[in-house]
Amino acid sequence: MKTIEKRKNRVAILWCLSLLMVSTFSYAQQNKNTLFMQANKAMLNAKVMQADILVPNEYNKGVDNYKDAEDYYAREKGVEKVEELLVKAVNYFNRSADFSVSAKLVFANTLNAREDALSAGADKFAKELWLEAEEDFNRAAKELENGDRDDSYKYSTAAIEMYRKAELSSIKTDLLDETRILLEKADEMKVDRNAPKTFKRAKSLLAETERELETNRYDMDYPRILAKQAKYEARHAIYLNSAISKIDDNNMEMEEVILSYETPLARIAEKIGFVAQFHEGIEKPEQEIIEHVLELQSNNEMLIAENFDKEIEIWHLQSTVALLKKQNVALNNEFRNEIDKRTDAMKAQTKELENEKALLAARIAKQAKIHDQFETVYLIFDSTEASVFRSGDEIIIRMHGFGFDVGKSEIEPVNFALLTKAQDAIRIFQGSNVIVEGYTDSFGSDEANLVLSQKRSDAVSQYLIANSDTPDNNKITSIGYGENNPVANNETTQGRKQNRRIDIKIQPNL
User: Fold this and answer.
1) Which residue has the higher pLDDT, 366 or 80?
2) Rounded to whole angstroms, how far apart are CA atoms 388 and 373?
3) Average pLDDT, the chain
4) How far apart are CA 327 and CA 240, in angstroms?
5) pLDDT digits (tens, 9 = 90+) for 241-276
6) Does position 365 have pLDDT exceeding 60, yes or no?
7) Which of these, 137, 164, 157, lies nearest to 218 by C-alpha position?
8) Banded pLDDT at 11 (limits 50, 70, 90)
């Protein structure tokens, strides 16, 4: 009986090892997409973190190893060498992404100046100045990587100055010059006969832009917006003149005109699933369309957060799969020499997998608890008060219903009810770290906005601490980010209102 049992065990071992050999062969035959998947994700993440700009040395080393891996793969030099190069590439990309977090704080003003220049089209209309600014920024980033903060500051300051010059040059070249040409064309077309108000507004905006450029050389946000509006209004006046002339030429009745402008709204309404009715004017169908868009935006935020969690889970599973594949290769190499020892090795692996399974189960349980708590917090607020979503394990409460007076940091009584709800949400996550983040729109200087956002976040955090019934259970801190990390377009009134916000981040204690 013992001999039969021993033979059964040996057959089972041989069968398992045969499967491992097949798995190894399949691994060697894997396609490029699978082989390069981890490196592609690491490179994409580094790009998203702007590591190619902020940490060029480390990022470029990752690119070099990635290209070498592609070359080896194309020449069929062996999977092992390709994997070795890809591992190096991933390490460089990950290091560059990690370092870019602190680099973003160091170069916050430089990045703002660069974004403003891009928004003005400086890379197209002031190319020489733009390239010179890019070169200074690249040198600043490399000096920071090398640990030389003094030279890094010198070059980043030079880059800011050059970006501002490029932005100003672009505004004058692209926006103002083209606007003047459009206004001359409009004047020749006698646009003021059919669209006098729009034509007058275009000229007024152009004049105001020129005054702002002369008197305010430190904040280009407002002049840039004025210049874009002037260019738009000039084009708008020309269009209105053409449209009104067409109406006159065709002897269209007023009813026909109104019906022609109701048609686009009716088509949009039909696409999103309802019939637009205009017996009370266009306001009602317009509001219904806006509400539908807002609902879609809210759903999209939730989907993005859920997708992020899924990607993290997939990444962990892929890491486990990669580990198992390497273990399979090791088992196959040892099979020919020490079959008896391989039995012990397989038992050890089984135990390791059981431990991993237990750890994974514990993590899933923690994630389930956080999910349930998140659902509770989500129901506390309605859509007019705040958006609640997750970023990894963090819970973010974006209180767009909270407002400060312009330039003020005092909390008004009208906000007490919303802050009470925020306290209820924090209380659900006992023992968590809580960060109150303050933001402003882009109007005003960077320094003033940074100070104002800090005062606002301090005011909210102090209120939460002062009115907490369990002040020691949660650690509440505050930080102001000024005009950084906008969630909407600063060139519109609604966008600037959304950017003047308070975010509360809850970091559960895992």
Assistant:
1) 80
2) 12
3) 83
4) 72
5) 888 888 888 888 888 878 887 888 888 988 888 888
6) yes
7) 164
8) very low
Helix, strand, coil shares, percent, the chain, to 5: 75, 5, 20
DSSP conformational letter for 175: I
Q: Answer for the pair 406, 481: CB distance below 8 angstroms, yes or no.
A: no
Sheet with 433-438: strands ordered across: 387-391, 394-399, 502-507, 433-438, 475-480
Phi and psi torsions of 429, nearest 5°:
-105, 70
What's the CATH number for 369-507?
3.30.1330.60
Count Cα neighbours of 173 within 13 Å in the Cβ-side half-sphere.
16
pLDDT, tens only, 113-155: 899 888 888 898 888 999 999 999 999 999 999 999 999 999 9
**Beta carbons of 137 and 155 less than 8 angstroms apart:** yes
Total-model pTM: 0.45
Q: How many Cβ atoms from other residues are within 10 Å of residue 287's Cβ? A: 10
Helical (H) or strand (E) element with 123: helix 122-125
How far, in Å, CA of 370 to CA of 276, rounded?
A: 42
Given a contact cutoff of 8 angstroms between Cβ atoms, the answer to whether 453 and 480 are in contact is yes
From 168, 167, 137, select the one nearest 154 (Cα to Cα): 137
Q: What does DSSP assign to residue 487?
A: S
Residue 510: its pLDDT value, please?
67
Return d(Cα 439, Cα 453) in angstroms, integer.
5
pLDDT at 369 over 60: yes
User: How far are the Cα atoms of 134, 233, 254, 379 from residue 196, in angstroms, in the given order?
Assistant: 43, 11, 20, 51
C-alpha dihedral (184, 187, 191, 192), degrees to nearest 10:
120
Instruction: Look at residue 341 in the predicted model and tell me its pLDDT.
Output: 76
Lowest mean pLDDT among 5-14, 326-335, 465-474, 493-502: 5-14
Q: What is the pLDDT of residue 236?
A: 93
* DSSP codes joined into one string, 244-310: HHHHHHTT--HHHHHHHHHHHHHHHHHHTT-----BTBSHHHHHHHHHHHHHHHHHHHHHHHHHHHH
Which candidate, 391, 180, 382, 403, places its Cα nearest to that of 298? 382
Q: How many CB atoms lie within 10 A of CB 33?
A: 8
Q: Is the pLDDT of residue 31 over 80?
A: no
Q: Which two tokens stand for residue 131?
A: 């390239």
Q: Write out the H or E segment, with its range, that includes residue 395.
A: strand 394-399
Is the predicted pLDDT of residue 229 greater than 80, yes or no?
yes
Q: Supply 8's token pair.
A: 């059964």
- 349 CB burial (10 A radius; 0-12, 13-18, 19+): middle
HSE of 506, CA atoms in CB hemisphere, 13 A: 26
Strand, helix or coil for residue 510: coil
Q: Closest Cα to residue 122, out of 84, 159, 78?
A: 159
- Residue 308 token pair: 């992020």
Residue ranges per structural domain of the chain: 109-251, 369-507
DSSP 410: P
